[in-house]
Amino acid sequence: MRYVALLRGINVGGKAKVEMPRLKQLFEKAGCTDVATYINSGNVIFSEDRLASELTSFLETALEKEFGLTLRVLLRDKAAIDGLCHQIPDNWRNDIEQKTDVLFLWAEVNDPSIIDKVKFKPDIENVRYVDGALVWNIARQDANRGSSIKLIQSDLYPFMTIRNINTVRKLQTMMN
């Protein structure tokens, strides 16, 4: 099965530093094949026969041993990433005109009702729940007026890891 591992909170502001070549080697030592990393924010694409439920804690333990960091790992298989990308409008982009982020959700908060728990401004922000994620779109000119800072301060935030839509679409391409 083809997976992407999304590590939360690495290489942000000089904290929780994880070198991508070492990260790739760790996944290879763990028995994963066809391993590739993408950008410095903790995206690892790989093939593995084990189920995600078996892999997650195994990888989190391996990461702690290798890097001395307690990191959460969120796994999504190719079908989940394909389904997610299929449900995001093609005209939602991350560029000079728009900002579109995918907030991947851990099981603890992955429920359609999460849309009622996040505070956003429907007049300037488009927020959609897609199984396993929230997709947040706003015009670049309104980004400073948006609600994302309130989300970062909420009790939901530790159960999310965020990637921009360009990264998610690139990960989908790399999984093929």
Please explain how this structure is put together.
The protein is an alpha+beta fold and about 180 residues long. The protein folds into 2 domains: about 1-80, 2-Layer Sandwich (Alpha-Beta Plaits); about 85-175, bacterial protein sp0830 like (Alpha-Beta Plaits, 2-Layer Sandwich). The chain is about 30% helix and about 25% strand. The protein has helices spanning about 20-30, 50-65, 80-85, 115, 150, 165-175; strands spanning about 1-5, 35-40, 45, 75, 100-105, 125-130, 135-140, 160-165. The strands form 2 sheets. A 4-stranded antiparallel beta sheet has the order 2-3-1-4, with helices on both faces. A 4-stranded antiparallel beta sheet has the order 6-7-5-8. A hairpin with a 2-residue loop joins strand 6 (about 125-130) and strand 7 (about 135-140). The radius of gyration is 16 Å and the shape is globular.
Detail the topology: elements first, then pairings.
Blueprint: E1 2-7, H1 20-29, E2 33-38, E3 43-47, H2 52-67, E4 73-77, H3 78-87, E5 98-105, H4 114-117, E6 125-130, E7 133-139, H5 148-152, E8 160-164, H6 165-175
Antiparallel strand pairs: 1-3, 1-4, 2-3, 5-7, 5-8, 6-7
List keywords for this structure.
single chain, 176 residues, alpha+beta, Alpha-Beta Plaits, 2 domains, four-stranded antiparallel β-sheet, 8 strands, 27% strand, globular
